[in-house]
Amino acid sequence: MDRWTEMELLVQASERGSLSRAAESLNMSNAAASRHLASLEARIGARLMRRGTRGLCLTEAGERFYQSCKSVLADIKDAEAAASATVLNPTGTLRVTASLSFSVQHIAPLLKEYTARYPNVRVVVEVSNRYHDLIDNNIDVAIRTREFERDSSVTIRRLAATRRILAASPGYLDAHGAPGTIEDLASRPLLLYTYANSPNELNFRRGEETRSLRVQGLLESNDGQVLRAAALSGMGILVQPKYILYEDLVAGRLVSVLDDWDLPQLAVNIAFQSRRHMSAKVRTFIDFLVAHFERMDYQRKWTAFDHGAGTRRPILPESICGKLQ
After folding, report:
1. Does the predicted TM-score (pTM) go above 0.70?
2. pLDDT tens across 255-287, in order?
3. Could you tell me which of 72, 287, 83, 261 has the C-alpha nearest to residue 181?
4. CA dist 185 to 25, 167, 259, 274, Å?
5. Which residue of 28, 152, 188, 195 is surrounded by the most CB atoms within 10 Å?
6. In angstroms, rounded to a whole number, what is the distance separating the alpha carbons of residues 36 and 38?
7. Whose CA is closest to 8, among 73, 56, 61?
């Protein structure tokens, strides 16, 4: 028998003066209530209730046990309420992990607004370009560019898709010109991200046409910001997700090349532990991030073809483009 139910039954029967009314309050049959009471008395080894002129009443042993049960049940309900409050009211430490590029460009700028809205949440950002196990490393939310998680207890929610593009600085293009074909890349200084899938093989698609090219980087790094800084200095042509380079393209600090060809896109996902019993700090942060991405329209911006960027024109913000049309 369920000891919790037995204790609840004893408390209800004592306070209502009737086993049948106690059974009704606990949504059980009278027969089930009688079995629970008999089981409890058998385990305790004492008669806890007797029938009096006004219905059921407690024996001396029953009175002492009733007081203890009521205290225990109150403590458990208080514990449940406290746990429930953490689900409804964001509080505690939120541990987030993402790459350096994503942390700097898309998490850090939002934290002032998030923590102002939820002041009882303390945020810890673990910057890492490798994917750590969420459970082993006590991570609440991870931002990752992969389609699925090996651990079935980890849930993913899509933030956006992003193209991977080739880009170079205006200074580099002034000195060396833009590559005209994919094959031209074989003789160009390339800046490659070593954690990419097959970093030394570029697979392009343009409509139904495909090309593959084996490449060697003049500079290879496990961090996108190193490659971005090298590209801005004019060192060569980098291959990076557009979410890292978008602001540089808009400002004209970098220019996309061979943009009519498409490299395999990346999915930018939020990974977190099971949806069941999600804490408020995790739920609010995920909803906050998703709403921001939708508001900024990153999915469209990061998957658009720049068409004509190779002519050295920066990507103009939409507000400016609208005025020029």
Report:
1. no
2. 999 999 999 999 999 999 876 668 889 999 999
3. 261
4. 77, 12, 13, 44
5. 188
6. 5
7. 73
